[in-house]
Amino acid sequence: MKASIKKILFYVAIIFGPGLIYFPVYEILLKIYREDGGPTYFFQFYTDFTFLWMMGLLLFALSIMLKAKR
User: What parts of the sequence cross the membrane (predicted)?
Assistant: First the structure.
């Protein structure tokens, strides 16, 4: 049971850990790269890329967990 809890915590750290780094960086970049008080196209790319990357990590972790159950 402890091993499975450790695995789950490991996958949660892989999925949500980068988000703890990206959100402060996003706020800093938002302050630097403003055009006329609004976000630029850079932020559209940044948020889309981050979302897709997080979803990819989630699918990767879920596929590994499902393979481990077999």
Answer: 9-29, 49-66
